[in-house]
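Table S2 (text version). Query chain:
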Amino acid sequence: MRKLFYYAFAVAATFTAGYASASLDDTILHNTSRTLGLETNEVTISDQSRNGITIDYIATTKDGRRFGCYVTSTFGIVSDAICTEKRHSGTRTTTSNNKSGACNELLRRAGKCE
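Corresponding structure-token output:
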């Protein structure tokens, strides 16, 4: 009986771990597409690497633009994505989830005002 319990626990843990990983990937894709102002089907995520609570990755849009992005994740809570466009000319544009259009001194100094 005890072996059956351990077997059932191992099977449940395996399925839960797989679901949590898929759910995390879906959340990362959702947060990234929202940050970039695109639909989830317009962005692909690749080259994920994890370092502690930080997850670094590359987001590529359908039109070929590439962004270096990261999120932080603890206990199933995933932050908004922070992304920097990788341009060939050496210039970078940082994109965050600030779509309000309001420009304050902090955003102006960060170069985020248009």
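Notes on Table S2: The mean pLDDT is 77. Residues 24 and 76 are 7 Å apart (CA to CA).
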